[in-house]
Design brief:
Pfam families: DUF6811 (PF20657). The chain is α+β, with helices and mostly antiparallel strands. The chain is built from 2 helices and 6 strands. It has one domain. A two-stranded antiparallel sheet has the order 1-2. Strands 3-4 form a two-stranded antiparallel sheet. Bound molecules: iron/sulfur cluster.
Length: about 80
């Protein structure tokens, strides 16, 4: 276990990555932020966007093109959905 990992219910949790900044699922423990939904945040960002993220969302337009839409996700969060 490295200095920044914590163990919660037997699961080793790693600190959030830069792309997680702004997500509402982060929790701070002893000055280090962790994800409350997934123990390995860097793996969630191995694809384009973390599917649990509250601050960004993937959209697929009519042409099948994939876009990252941070604004729509933040509006949804503001409405409480
Ligand atoms: S839900 Fe995704 S974006 Fe949010 S903190 Fe967890 S890993 Fe990061």
């Amino acid at each position: 276990m490295s200095a920044q990992t914590i163990t919660v219910n037997g699961i080793e949790c790693h600190p959030i990555v830069e792309k997680c900044q702004g997500c509402e699922r982060t929790k701070e423990v002893d000055g280090v932020k962790y994800c409350a939904s997934y123990p390995l945040p860097e793996r969630k960002w191995a694809q384009k966007v973390c599917n649990f993220a509250t601050h960004m969302k993937l959209e697929i337009d009519k042409g099948g093109k994939v876009n990252v839409n941070p604004l729509k996700a933040s509006k949804r969060a503001a409405r409480g959905r």
